[in-house]
Amino acid sequence: MVSKMNVFINGEPHCFAKGLSVSAMLKELRLIPEKVAIERNLQIVPRSLFSQTELQDGDHIEIVRFIGGG
To answer: Does a structural domain hold residue 70?
Structure first.
């Protein structure tokens, strides 16, 4: 049995398997890491640490997507 955790993303609750990294979360959400900025519990997560940053139950994540235009 896989242990689950609840994470709030942009204010909405999401359920994931425990031990999920920021990189794995983005993959599950089908987001491109190079096109987003991540804030975890009011602290920016550097893109270089996405794969090393493990989410915890109750984390509050803000995802900002970059949109090009001209």
So the answer is: no
